[in-house]
Amino acid sequence: MPSLTESAMPAAVTEPIVVLHDVHKSFGQAEVLKGVSLAVPKGDVICIIGPSGSGKSTLLRCINGLVPINQGSIRVANFNVHELKTDQEKIALRKEVSMVFQQYNLFPHKTALENVMMAPIHVLKEGRDEVRARAVALLGKVGLAAKQDSYPGELSGGQQQRVAIARSLAMRPEVMLFDEVTAALDPETVKEVLNTIRELAQEGMTCILVTHEMRFAREIADEVYFTDGGVIVESGPPDRLFDHPVKERTQAFLSQIL
Amino acid sequence: MSRSSWTTPLPPATDLPVLLPPAARLAHSAAAERAAGTFSLRLQPVHGVMALVLFLVGCAVAEAQAKAGDPSVLATIWKWMPLLLRGFLFNLAISAIAMALGTVAGMLLGFAQISLLPPVRKGAWLATHFFRNAPWLVLLFYCMFLLPFQVTVFGVTIPIPDWIKATFGLSLPVMANVSEIVRGAVQSIPTTQWESAASLAFTRRQTVWMIILPQCIKRMLPPWMNLYAILTMATVLASIVGVNEMMTLTRQALSAENRPGLLLAFYSHVLFWFFLYCYPIARWTVRLEAKYAVPH
Amino acid sequence: MESFWDWFRWLHEATGINLTIFYDPFDRGRFVSGFLTTVKLSAVCIVLSVLIGVVGAWLQGSRLRITRHVIYWYIQFFRNTPPLVQLYFFYFGIGSLLKGADVSGIPVPLISNVAWAIVSLSFFAGAFNVEIFRSGVEAVPTTTIEAAESLGFSRLRTYLFIVLPLAFRICLPALNNNLVNLVKTTTLAYAIAVPEMLYVSSQIWSDELNVPVMMNVLLVCYIALVGALVWVMHRWERAIRVPGFGA
Fold first, then answer.
1. Fewer CB atoms inside 10 A, N or C side of chain A?
2. Cβ neighbourhood burial of C115 (10 Å; 0-12, 13-18, 19+)
3. What is the ipTM for the molecules in this complex?
4. Domain annotation covers residue A189
5. Which CATH number do you get for residue B105?
6. How far apart are CA C127 and CA C119, in angstroms?
7. B296 in a domain, yes or no?
8. Count of alpha carbons within 13 Å of C168, Cβ hemisphere only?
């Protein structure tokens, strides 16, 4: 029986766009995901929190097909991710779901603008001028219009991450995945990245964030999942989870963090 | 894709690295090699073991090829060893003298490269790169052929034997590389040091002698010692121009013995002695590098 | 053209500076062929050493321990011994074992001295290249590759557009050091009578007895050759450098 979230999903208003059912993943002998199930309605913002090694990053990588799963099913938009074999199918999936990583996102030998333009030109095979216009607009949207000809090595950490977000948006995805995107940044620059993500969420993008920023999670999440040891221990709306956690492990973790 | 101009300086690096640490390490070692003029010798005990193993394999091969009545390989090596070791000492003498000459000249040239007078600076730069770009063997030939075989000073005729000419020839690339090492070390001292000295009313000469130079010595020591190890290995080049050092004597011994199988044993014997000498230098260099590591 | 060469004949008669390589067609031909041999030797060795470096770096990641150890010992030997000794090992050591016979039954070495010089120098430079290429590929972060795949790049395109360009930019400075060192090391081929520039010049000056002049010409030629290479390499590095790294 898939353990869906306790909180009532708005009944039949939004069809879940990401559905995981009993996902297992092992790296060699070590089992990292031990039966994870969740459903993400379209337009929602989901935050996944938990101690290191609980499988959060692996979970995200399974969702966009970077890491194949051993057991279970993953459905994103109209794709059965666990059944995708060919490069073509994977490329089609990657048009629907984009991912931003913690560091080393950008291609250091290309300017910010070229970074944003590369995938639409080479993968989506769109026209150069059209892509350029859209890329300039996206960089403007994240507040980096002036830096379009700078190389990643000339940008601060926060600027790099914002360019990475713009680059992901260039693919026009339905779902955006964020893997601890602010963990490697200076505290001052964390804010500018979080603002960008907040704007995205407010515009209705479906976002799944793995994050340590509890205040931010509380503010923008529709649902928070707490993972530990490869399973989802508890989930619920942020107010309930943070203020009145039910499970002991959740309480222990939150008392350490907050 | 390419930068606007290849002469524009790079802006300061970002706070979020764009490449992994191995990239930075490779860039750093490439820059260090370029400044020192040679690659860095990373000898380890296992290399000595390797030379020994090679020697033993060579002996075994030679024994296998030996005809009846031939003395054993080890006996042959033992017979020749005194002569070869005298040759080895000769190699060491050449390397020591060449290093001494080259270091003195190189330091002068290096300081000339940071002189405030443009003609001196440019001339020193030209001389440094002139000798850096020349192959060591060509410089050796140059000195062998063009230095006089005797020189008369104050009515006394001093003969200049071949090995002195070879030593001089080897000291030229050493001079050029030391000059670059000195220049690199001086330029790595933060400008604030010069500024503080100036604000305390030190003259330029006082600043260089009392403040900059002492700090440079530590930075220069590892690449300088590495250069010495490389130079010692390079003294075998003198065998090509006819100096009677270990390599020449080994080859003469081989042709005297006229047993083809002995080659591996004799050459690995040469390698073994060079390893024995260069290994402590290489380890000391690594220790000094770690001790005086300049934070980047 | 003749009048240009004749000026050097006049120079010899007037000042004693005997530049036979200019006015004497035979010497001119010899010197030019020596120069071209040096250039060819350098070029072939550069290409082969890069290939050896690529293959070696690939084999170093092999799952078989024996392969990894063989590559390790190869690097250590060629890196820590004088290249002259390596050359002698190949030419006199292995070369004397490989003797074929020509038509009249006289034993003749199977592999020429030029070939041995190429083999020895390529392995010498290749040993350094293996380390350089390994570092270059290792330095491309896996996350950058994952980011490219997340954007929809296929494995091949990721390799072509992201990994190779980055690894190349990372390797280039170290590779250039190696290249310049290789060109300078080709002079060692003199020891096994390869007709490169130094050897040919020694033949010319023993024939024409114009040692000082030829020496100077030789020195200037080598410095010009190496200097030109260094300058080109420096420009190339600056043109394709990755900003924010190794500044």
1. N
2. middle
3. 0.85
4. no
5. 1.10.3720.10
6. 12
7. no
8. 13
Which one of C143, C144, C150, C161 makes the best mutation probe of the A interface by having the most chain A beta carbons within 10 Å?
Answer: C150
**Structural domain that includes position A126:** 106-172
Domain count, chain B: 1
Q: Render pLDDT for B135-194 as a digit per residue (tens, 0 to 9).
A: 999 999 999 888 888 888 888 888 888 889 999 999 999 999 999 999 988 888 888 888
Q: Report DSSP state, residue B236.
A: G
Residue ranges of C 154-193 with Cβ closer than 8 A to chain B = 166, 170-171, 173-174, 177-178, 181, 184-188, 190-191
Contacts of A152 in chain B (CB under 8 A): 14, 18
Domain segments of chain C as ranges: 2-240
Say whether B14 and A104 touch across the interface (CB within 8 A): no
Q: Which residue has the tokens 């964030």?
A: A209
Q: Which of C77, C174, C227 sits opposite B133 (nearest CB)?
A: C227
Four-CA torsion A69, A75, A80, A81, nearest 10 degrees = -40
A104 touching B, CB under 8 A?
A: yes
On whether residue B121 sits in a domain, the answer given is yes
* Number of separate domains in chain A: 1
User: Which residues of chain B have a CB within 8 Å of the CB of C93?
Assistant: 263-264, 267
Residue numbers of the domain that contains B217:
72-291
| A153 touching chain B per CB within 8 A | yes
- Does residue A95 sit in helix, strand or coil? coil
State pLDDT tens for residues C109-167: 667 889 999 999 999 999 989 988 888 888 888 999 999 999 989 888 888 888 888 88
Contact list, C231 vs chain B (CB under 8 Å): none
B2 at C interface, C-beta within 8 A:
yes
Q: Output the CA torsion sign for C166, A145, A191, A199.
A: negative
Query: A153 to chain B, minimum CA–CA distance in Å?
Result: 5
Chain A residues whose beta carbon lies within 8 Å of the beta carbon of residue C166: 107-109
Architecture of domain C2-240: Orthogonal Bundle (1.10)
* B258 lies within 8 A of chain C by CB: no
- Residues in contact with B178: Cβ distance below 8 Å, sequence separation at least 6, in sequence order: B102, B103, B105, B106, B107, B109, B110, B224, B227
Inside any domain, residue B106: yes
Q: Is the pTM of this model over 0.80?
A: no
Instruction: Specify if B53 maps to a domain.
Output: no
Q: Give me the tens of pLDDT residue by residue for chain B, a chain 296 residues long.
A: 333 344 444 455 677 777 887 777 788 788 878 877 777 777 778 777 888 888 888 778 777 777 766 677 788 888 888 999 999 999 999 999 999 999 999 999 999 998 888 999 999 999 999 999 899 999 999 998 888 888 888 888 888 888 899 999 999 999 999 999 999 888 888 888 888 888 888 888 888 888 888 888 888 888 888 899 889 989 999 999 888 899 999 989 888 887 767 888 888 888 888 888 888 888 888 888 777 765 54
SS3 A84: coil
